[in-house]
Amino acid sequence: MPPTCARHLLRDVRRGMVHPNEPMNAPLHIAPLTAADLAAACALDPTDTGCRGRLLWHLHTPYAQALKAEQGAQLLGHACGLVHGRSGWVRHLHTAPHTTEVAPALLAALVEWMEAHGAHSQVAIAQPGAEAPYTACGFEESGSLLHYTHGHFLEATRAEVVDLARSFAWPLGTLLFGALVLMGVIRPAIKAMGTAPVAGATIGSDVQMNQLDALESDTPERPQLTGPGSAADAAAQVSAGEKQLEDARQLTRDNPAAVANIIKAWMNGEAPA
């Protein structure tokens, strides 16, 4: 179904309001809509399947209002609106056919309620050809709106797909570029920074192992115990390391001061003279 063009109307309280003064056959009574009026209000337009839910919402919302217009015992129309801050919104207006005086009366009462609740300006949307009740209450046209009704958007056209792809091209390209920078530059740098201390720790551990090996190598080799035999055989089995150890012991006994200086220089990291 082709779109219909609705009129966006705006009313400012400072412009004043034109009150309807058309003659009527019987007094028209404007009052708040109640739950008992729902059936009669919905019967004005049986094709409007959302009428009951819309009216119930306005009945139970503190910042909304639903009004009815009665002439005698007959309900001739209803109007709904709400107030948000200093603005009012006429959300729905429906009247019985051939009752031109009902719509302006409902709008006048609804605008009065909005002004009493602090709404200094009111907004309404009217179908083409239905602007008269609004202009009678001081509304002025401020623009047009396109409204699609009973439409089924099952698939997009090629132009819509191309436009959608173009709109997403820049964000997706930026995201892809960021991912490439992250994986190609930042991640390898972070990985290298994380592995550098590990290499240092490995080198340090190797140095410590070498030092332990050096300490182990400084330990003299102990000759194995031999069984009973001649003194000549025992003397022949004395190793070179044992002989060096015995010479060091002898030097300690003969010249302890020199040995002390050698140990002190070794501990300070100096080469003995």
Radius of gyration: 51 Å
**H/E topology pattern:** EEHHEEEHEHEHHHH
Helical/strand content category: alpha+beta
| Strand line-up of the largest beta sheet | 2-3-4-5-6-1-7
Report strand %: 15-25%
Structural overview:
With 273 residues, this protein is of the alpha+beta class. The chain folds into three domains: 4-147, Aminopeptidase; 161-198; 239-273, no CATH class. The protein is built from eight helices and seven strands; from the N terminus they run ββααβββαβαβαααα. Strands 2-3-4-5-6-1-7 form a seven-stranded mixed beta sheet. α7 packs across α8. The protein is rod-shaped, with a radius of gyration of 51 Å. Residues 1-5, 13-23 and 198-203 have low confidence and may be disordered.
Give the SSE layout.
Blueprint: E1 4-12, E2 28-32, H1 38-42, H2 51-59, E3 64-71, E4 74-84, E5 87-95, H3 102-116, E6 121-126, H4 132-136, E7 140-147, H5 158-218, H6 231-236, H7 240-254, H8 256-267
In short:
This protein folds into 3 domains: 4-147, Aminopeptidase (3-Layer(aba) Sandwich); 161-198; 239-273, no CATH class. Helices cover 47% and strands 21% of the residues. It has helices at 38-42, 51-59, 102-116, 132-136, 158-218, 231-236, 240-254, 256-267; strands at residues 4-12, 28-32, 64-71, 74-84, 87-95, 121-126, 140-147.
What distinguishing features does this structure have?
disordered N terminus; 7 strands; Aminopeptidase; alpha+beta; single chain; 273 residues; 47% helix
